[in-house]
């Protein structure tokens, strides 16, 4: 497990469980991460419900989806939140005269960012989140600069860090520190991290950005039912931007549930009731149509530090409870 030179980590805490930090912000990625379950075919009613909930609950950012290339992702196959065209966004939020900012994600090599990401003065979007793998960093930095120069806030989500070497991860972080990115994310792509690793990794990220105005974010997956715990530990050890989803909705095992984190945070800005109301009225009925959340195949993938695609095939297949065969196959492949 990658721990980025753990013996050199300064495990200084940045908060406690009885107070709150002014720098901490919450980002909802329900529509974006949840869209990976249904190819982004959410109707306007659902997206409006999530938006209204984020605004009422005091959430700082809501992520609407991706800026996917229509040359790569055929519109006949994917829903509109794969592309987040300006007209579609404004149909939901108007001019968004609220306290909740709007975000979209742009995957490296999967977006026509020069043309599809408009200048900020022509868009209601506030934040561009660049998602990249370690071998794509030069393009990621160009995307960050492009978004920054257009007037956006920016983050970089370095994916699959649990399989990246210490040296490569350190070099990547050093490059991001010299870029104009605002927030660097620790992403537990495979849901394989335990709180101890998250503490050490967050401390190392903080060490590398020390002396700059850059912040750290955390995006946790719930394969081992640790997304909430890992998010709290990242917060206490220095993360400022915390990803959540309503009712934990997200690809595979899902993400840190918004309702859990808001119940933990001591910020009077937040209101839990609108979230619970949205879950009861919108998400409970939706569970008859979509599957997300903890399941044994996701646990297996998380424990073995593997991409969730194989586990998703089992859970969404004809025999979702035949996880013993899946376990035996994966163990054989590992040996």
Total helices: the number is 13
Q: From N to C, what is the helix and strand string?
A: EHHEHEHEHEHEHEHEHHHHH
Give the overall silhouette.
globular
CATH classification class of the largest domain: Alpha Beta
Biggest β-sheet description: 8 strands, parallel, barrel
- Annotated CATH homologous superfamily of the largest domain: Aldolase class I
Query: How many angstroms does the end-to-end distance come to?
Result: 17 Å
| Total domain count | 2
Q: Please state the average pLDDT score.
A: 92
At CATH's second level, what is the architecture of the largest domain?
Alpha-Beta Barrel
Protein structure class: alpha/beta
Order the strands across the largest sheet as they lie in space.
Answer: 1-2-3-4-5-6-7-8
Radius of gyration (CA) equals: 19 Å
Show unreliable segments.
1-9
- What is the helical fraction, as a range of percent? 25-40%
Count the E strands.
8
The name of the CATH topology of the largest domain is TIM Barrel
Approximately how much beta-strand content do the residues carry? 5-15%
Structural description of this entry:
This protein has 335 residues and is α/β, with parallel strands linked by helices. The chain has 2 domains: 6-286, Aldolase class I (TIM Barrel); 296-334, no CATH class. The protein contains 13 helices and 8 strands. The protein has helices at residues 30-34, 44-57, 86-93, 113-116, 137-149, 166-177, 195-209, 227-236, 258-264, 273-286, 296-303, 309-315, 323-334, and strands spanning 25-28, 61-66, 101-107, 127-132, 153-158, 183-187, 215-219, 241-244. An 8-stranded parallel β-barrel has the order 1-2-3-4-5-6-7-8, surrounded by 4 helices. Strand 2 (61-66), helix 3 (86-93) and strand 3 (101-107) form a beta-alpha-beta unit. Helix 7 (195-209) packs parallel to helix 8 and helix 11 (296-303) runs antiparallel to helix 12. The longest helix has 15 residues, at 195-209. The model is unreliable at 1-9 (pLDDT under 50).
């Amino acid at each position: 497990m990658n721990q980025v030179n753990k013996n050199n980590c300064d495990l200084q805490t940045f908060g406690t469980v009885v107070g709150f930090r002014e720098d901490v912000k919450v980002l909802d990625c329900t529509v974006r991460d949840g869209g990976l379950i249904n190819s982004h075919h959410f109707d306007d009613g659902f997206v409006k419900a999530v938006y209204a909930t984020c605004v009422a609950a005091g959430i700082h950012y809501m992520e609407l989806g991706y800026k996917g290339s229509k040359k790569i992702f055929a519109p006949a196959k994917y829903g509109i939140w794969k592309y987040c065209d300006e007209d579609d966004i404004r149909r939901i939020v108007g001019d968004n005269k609220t306290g909740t900012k709007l975000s979209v994600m742009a995957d490296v090599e999967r977006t026509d960012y020069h043309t599809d990401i408009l200048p900020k003065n022509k868009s209601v979007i506030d934040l561009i989140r660049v998602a990249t793998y370690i071998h794509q960093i030069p393009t990621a930095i160009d995307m960050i600069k492009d978004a920054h120069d257009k007037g956006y806030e920016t983050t970089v989500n370095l994916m699959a860090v649990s399989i990246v070497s210490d040296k490569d991860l350190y070099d990547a972080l050093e490059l991001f520190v010299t870029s104009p990115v605002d927030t660097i994310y620790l992403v537990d792509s495979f849901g394989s991290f335990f709180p101890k690793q998250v503490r050490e990794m967050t401390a190392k990220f903080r060490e590398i950005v020390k002396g700059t105005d850059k912040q750290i974010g955390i995006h946790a997956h719930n394969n081992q039912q640790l997304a909430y715990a890992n998010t709290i530990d990242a917060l206490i050890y220095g993360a400022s931007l915390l990803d959540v989803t309503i009712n934990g909705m997200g690809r595979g095992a899902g993400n840190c549930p918004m309702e859990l984190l808001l119940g933990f945070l001591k910020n009077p800005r937040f209101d839990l009731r609108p979230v619970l109301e949205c879950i009861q009225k919108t998400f409970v009925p939706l569970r008859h149509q979509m599957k997300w959340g903890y399941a044994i195949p996701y646990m297996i993938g998380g424990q073995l530090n593997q991409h969730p695609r194989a586990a998703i095939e089992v859970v969404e297949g004809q025999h979702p409870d035949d996880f013993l065969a899946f376990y035996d196959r994966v163990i054989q492949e590992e040996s």
